[in-house]
Amino acid sequence: LRQVGQDVADGIKTVGMACFVHSNHWLSLIIDGSHHTIYFGDSFGHEAPDLIHHAVKWWLGLHTPISFKWKALACTHQQDQYSCGILAVNAIAHHFHLQAYSLLISLTPDVLDAVRMQIGVSVIDIHLHTLSVGLS
Predict the structure, then answer these.
(1) Phi, psi of 62 (to 5 degrees)
(2) I need a labelling partner for 120 at 20 to 30 A (CA). Which of 52, 128, 129, 130 fits?
(3) Is the backbone of residue 11 left (phi > 0), alpha (psi -120 to 50) or beta?
(4) What is the maximal distance between C-alpha atoms in the chain?
(5) What HEC string does 39-88 produce?
(6) How far apart are CA 27 and CA 86, in angstroms?
(7) pLDDT for 31-52, tens place per residue?
């Protein structure tokens, strides 16, 4: 984590993450070292909580004295009480790969279920490809 912070500070890396807050909500955060910008997305449209501001400022302060500016991250508006996780992941994927991942528009239950399945399969696929032992 220290090296990632240094790479962000040096403008070598951009990192994206989903943040879990208030024990019930996922947010999107992207820290772009090359542009000294923090992109923040909340599917309910809220500003970044102070907790996130302070944590990011503290972490970046360990690696650079440069102040990063905060900007809104494109994120689909949540229409229920439980889709924040997939919308947070979708916003991050869309930011990094505009052509491959469009923002979710139609939030029907079938679309949301399909996206949940896609994310689950992707997580399992990545895990299986990073195992150090072969599977037969």
Answers:
(1) -70, -20
(2) 52
(3) left
(4) 50
(5) EEECCCCCCCCHHHHHHHHHHHHCCCCCCCEEEECCCCCCCCCCCHHHHH
(6) 10
(7) 999 999 999 999 999 999 999 9
